[in-house]
Specification:
The protein is mainly α. It contains 7 helices and 2 strands. The protein has a two-stranded antiparallel sheet with strand order 1-2. The protein starts with 9 loop residues before the first helix and ends in a 10-residue tail after the last helix.
Length: about 180
Amino acid sequence: MTFSLYDISLPVLLQGLDNLAVVVAKGKAFCEENGIEEAALLDFRFRPDMYQFARQVKTAADTAVMGAVRLTGEEPVLTQDVPTSFEGLLQLIASSREVVAAVTPEQLGANQGQAVSFTAMGTFRMTFAAQADYLQKFILPNFYFHCATTYDMLRHNGVELGKKDFLGDFGGAITPL
């Protein structure tokens, strides 16, 4: 069986965004149920040199959009604003999901094998010889890094999360032995 660039990218990014929304929603509920100011979690970071929670979520969502759009040969339009509420983060994830879901298999197939090159953070240029390299070696690892860090930050702060929240519907069946 051969998988297309679409098969190994868009469904994975969409599932990850769906699961990210579940994790963020649980963080929102945790604050509401425990009388915690949202800023306490939104501004949380493990280390001074790390992005805070809200920026981790934004970066995950932006990474999904960058991956999907750049694989079509276009450049994504992203805002610099980091949402300042859980509701804003959930809206960002939903709008990012819409952008990713709008990309068709035909759009990805048309540019397969082309190089991907872009300016990153306004300070340097990144170039990948092929779209598959961009996807497999940059977008997917980066996306999962920020999703996992988001999950870990909330769990560290007491939000009841389990592996199923992170994985979501992983398409497999679990049966007792």
